[in-house]
Amino acid sequence: MSPTPARITAVDTFDVRFPTSRELDGSDAMNPDPDYSAAYVVLRTDADDGLEGHGFTFTIGRGNDVQVAAIEALRHHVLGRSVEELCADPGTLNRDLIGDSQLRWLGPEKGVMHMAIGAVVNALWDLAAKRARKPLWRFLADAEPQWLVSQVDFRYIADALTPQEALAILQLGRRGAAEREVLLRERGYPGYTTSPGWLGYSDEKLTRLARQAVADGFTQIKLKVGADLADDVRRCRTAREAIGPDIRMAIDANQRWNVGEAVEWTRALAEFDPYWVEEPTSPDDVLGHAAIRKAVAPVKVATGEHVQNRIVFKQLLQAGAIDVLQIDAARVGGVNENLAILLLAAKFGVPVCPHAGGVGLCELVQHLSMFDYVALSGTTENRVIEYVDHLHDHFIDPVVLRDGHYTAPTAPGFSAAMRAESLAEFTYPDGAFWAADLAQGKGAAA
């Protein structure tokens, strides 16, 4: 008698919030007081191996409960399904979640529901990689190109990238992959840091952290801008004096400007040699980005952390609107959709420099960039992963930086699992921290 196949038995969710607003960590012109948060999901099974799939999407406080509710609305698509079948073809779950017509109406393929899909899909990939006993970057890099193509939804992007083109790109990407994996393990993947540049920091703190970033081996930092031009001029001058002329300095407006303002403001800061201007206007404004790019060159234009799906990324590339494409591991529909976006970037020859920071975004997106280097684009030239130096201690397998480079994860999975004690302390509103906080009448995240 054959054994009963393992099934998904639980989809557990947690509203996890950290009080980062109290030190102004994460502050920028659009988001002055974020409480970095994660709508967190755990897929549990009845398999004898005891493995679980962990995933999440990132928010900044209020509304994280709404995001959790969106994940819970997907539970019926997951419970009771075969673990082996799902892990052999995560694309089936991705298609089922996106294809729920009644929930799709709330998007389609954008916003809270799409981010919820990303959390669940990422949790499945975490489980699949753990069952394969590989870190996700290597699980993807070792996969057959034909199988990777089967994981991509080409609907709405086939005019820019066909399955045949994607297969050819992946087949070419495998050449030299073994040698690149050795290099990756030896030197890691280049990073840059936003830690000095939060808008709420004093000039003294900015200077100290910028100098420390250079000492730590980073060759690029990033400053938040967009609230006050005179303030930005002073802060950019302060940062440039701290890091010298040879370290790259990016600026990030977090969607603050109209198109004309973006051009004027960026030109006003051009004397400080910004490498790129990030999110200069609405992430949905493809033509606005194209106009800004034309007007501010040679300053590069970067965007992507709030781009809602592969279709908008396709248009940004088709319109020649960006110099740098910034994927986010948890904004779109998970690994499957990010595979599509990485392939689009490779087709158009645009470098990918992921958005990270937040809660666990560094832990996740490092895997996608490392796969991209080893088995897709084959290069790290002009490519860096964002790094922010807080909240990593809440993860079982946190990122490790060495000389400004992300070291390649070795533990199986997607590096997504949070520590049980962190969940117990920071789950809102009943975790130990928030219960005490609310009892004192603070309740900043309420």
UniProtKB/TrEMBL annotation:
The keyword Nuclease does not apply. CDD domains: rTSbeta_L-fuconate_dehydratase. Transmembrane segments: none annotated. SUPFAM superfamilies: Enolase C-terminal domain-like, Enolase N-terminal domain-like. Pfam families: MR_MLE_C, MR_MLE_N. It comes from the Bacteria. Its cofactor is Mg(2+). Residues 203-299 form the Mandelate racemase/muconate lactonizing enzyme C-terminal domain. It catalyses: L-fuconate = 2-dehydro-3-deoxy-L-fuconate + H2O. Its EC number is 4.2.1.68. Keywords: Lyase, Magnesium, Metal-binding. This is L-fuconate dehydratase.
